[in-house]
Amino acid sequence: MVVCLCLNQVRCKQYVGDRHESIICPGCGCLCDDLDVTVDGDRIVEVSNVCLWGVSRFFHAKKFHPKKERHRLREPQVRHQGRRETATYEAALAEAAQVLSRARRPLIYGLTNSGSWAQEAALKLARSLGARLEPADLAFKAPYYQSIQEHGLAWAPLEVIRDEADTVLFWGANPIHSAPRHVVRYAVFARGRFTERGIEDRQAAAVDIYPTELARFCPLFIQINPGQEVDLVAGVAAILAGEPPPDPVVRGTRRLAKFLAQAACGVIFCGRGVSYGPALELFDRLARLVALLNQQARYFLFPLSSDFNSNGLYHLLLNEMGRAGAPDFGTGEVVTHYTPVDFREVDAVLVAGADLLWFLPEEQVEDLKRRRVPIVALSPFANRTTGQAAVILPTALAGIEAAEVAYRMDGLPLVLKQLVDSVLPPDHQVLTDLHRMIGAQD
Amino acid sequence: MATAEELLEFLPGTDCRQCGVSCAEFAGLLLARERPPEDCPVLHEPDYAGFIEALHELLGPLTAAAGMRVDPEKCNGCGICVAMCEFHLGNCDAARLGKGPRPQDQMVFHVVNGTVVVVRQELCTRLVQAAEKCSKCAQYCPTEAIELF
Questions:
Q1: CATH number, domain at B50?
Q2: With the C-alpha atoms ordered B137, B139, B141, B147, is the resulting torsion angle positive or negative?
Q3: In this structure, are A220 and A333 located in the same domain?
């Protein structure tokens, strides 16, 4: 901590505020642990070693637009006769409890950008409400977990990937946009125990449907057309098994097979791009390919999470429910769904740690508006969902204004510290209060 | 040649952002010759009389500027340049491992508030005669934010 003892701290040259070193960033799934944060009172003035995703959290800016400020929500609001009015915390909570307990098919959505305590509180709330709990990235992660369970694939800590992986393939992933420091900290540029020369000791390649920034450092960049993904994996698997590739042969199949075969230790990072096609089939094929490659060298299949605690949610679901999907408590016995919810069945939504209306197709958004499905939104920032919400409960930023626990993209749990004070409650407290209030109503 | 730290000594250090950026970022922009000292409105106050002239003196004539310019509009703070820098390779253990440099480390540049800021340009190996061809920071930059000249 660096504090000047003179009284005129603002003008004093020696005063630079309280310095916190090695802080964990709640910006993306990397959870970088090397940030140095300078705090002056209740204001963060400088953060070192942080990418623009982290900046968007620390300085309330828009992602990749650090000069555009995001509007911060400060007071609870309730929609009354079509107009939103400021309300007390207790009144907003009571309204939210009424909306959710009246619903026949309530849904709790998001939670991938919430801390683990909030996720636990949301799961308890879903149980008592008889609601369905839907992770925001279900279409991407559920087929992934199904496929690695089917083929018995192993995981590795990111440090092991940094130290040992000499072949890295990005499939439908652009870490420069989803987790900007991932390639520097672990995947491509970092120098590890057996990769002492960093990128010179590694081979990097990418498969995508359009050119990305990865082409700057991936000598092998295979651009395919949408719909060719499964054929490409099938062709590569056939070549690696010593068979001729089945028709149609996608351009780049042989080069990719040669690239994957030369590894001593390899990793395939899958991004959200995988979920835009036949995700289950593609993940199954990729997992089968990795199982085949594992006969010759150690290979890992890894999802590239952009939300900072997506992994924590699936960790919780696997621990509590035994399955990595969306548990539905509304049908008597618990049913786990692996495909995204049909919003036409839903009659009330609680959104936390995600922007539901941003991700939904426009026709589904219109359908929700037309049927006047009430939305309860827990969010630190104003977004499209809070714009349509019946009840808005502002929350403190996890990992900056409130302590939390988050799981890194490789499953490592980390404790996020509180750096500045906030008058707003953390989202786990809001969910717990909501749970208590719904219990009292019953 | 002046360093960003030396320039910061002559900036208000209040991070008021009236110029649009923090004082540390403004020092980096001064060093890269992208903004003149006059752009800081606080330096025009009577309390800071003489600071603008001192900054001009520290920066020296325009021709002394050495060869790197970072475009803060393009930079996304990924830190690939920090990890690839030849100077950091031999002098900064954290950067070798892909982490950000520690405050006590000697460094050419590091990432502050999501943008690369040049700290000590005189340490860049491009200024060493035998290594003038080094351009790894610009070569691997995914957003083409670094321009060498």
A1: 1.10.15
A2: positive
A3: no
Boundary of a domain, candidates A29, A47, A69: A69
Measured CA to CA, the distance from residue A328 to residue A144 in angstroms comes to: 20
Residue A171: give the domain boundaries.
Answer: 140-303
Min Cα separation A16/chain B (Å) = 8
Q: B44 pLDDT exceeds 90?
A: no
Q: Answer for the pair B69, B140: CB distance below 8 angstroms, yes or no.
A: no
Considering the domain architecture, whether residues A99 and A148 belong to the same structural domain is answered as no
Residue B54 lies in domain: 4-64
Give the pLDDT confidence score for residue A284 in this predicted structure: 95
Q: Taking CB atoms and an 8 Å cutoff, what residues of chain A touch B112? A: 46-48
| ipTM score of complex | 0.89
pTM for this prediction: 0.85
DSSP B42: G
Q: Which candidate from B94, B96, B143 shows the least CB-CB separation from A34?
A: B94
Same domain, B53 and B115: no
A382-A403-A53 Cα angle (round to 5)? 50
Tens digits of residue pLDDT in B93-138: 999 889 999 888 889 999 999 999 988 887 888 876 655 678 899 9
User: Which residue of B78, B81, B109, B137 to mutate against A (max A Cβ within 10 Å)?
Assistant: B78
* Alpha-helical segments (H) within A43-182: 52-58, 89-102, 116-129, 138-151, 158-164, 175-178, 182
Establish if A149 belongs to a structural domain. Answer: yes
- Tell me whether residues A49 and B96 touch, CB distance under 8 A: no
**Rounded distance between C-alpha atoms, residue A321 and residue A312, angstroms:** 14
Q: How confident is the model at residue A11 (pLDDT cuts 50, 70, 90)?
A: very low
Q: Which amino acid is at A95?
A: E
**Which residue, among B130, B126, B12, has the nearest Cα to B146 in the 3D structure?**
B126
Q: Are residues B132 and B100 part of one domain?
A: yes
| Secondary structure percentages of chain B, helix, strand, coil, to 5 | 45, 10, 45
pLDDT above 90 (res A17): no
* Per-residue confidence (pLDDT) for residue A2, from 0 to 100: 43
Determine the pLDDT at residue A442: 59
Rg of chain A over all Cα atoms, to the nearest angstrom: 23
pLDDT at site B103? 83
Tens digits of per-residue pLDDT, A246-273?
Answer: 988 999 999 999 999 999 999 999 999 8
Position A7 pLDDT exceeds 70: no
Dump pLDDT digits (tens) for A343-399. 999 999 999 999 999 989 999 999 999 999 999 999 999 999 999 999 999 999 999
Which residues of B, range 66-105, sit inside 8 Å of A by Cβ?
76-80, 82-84, 94, 96-103
Q: How confident is the model at residue A4 (pLDDT cuts 50, 70, 90)?
A: very low
Contacts of A136 (CB under 8 A, 6+ apart): A109, A110, A111, A112, A113, A307, A310, A353, A354, A356, A359
Domain match, A188 and A112 both: no
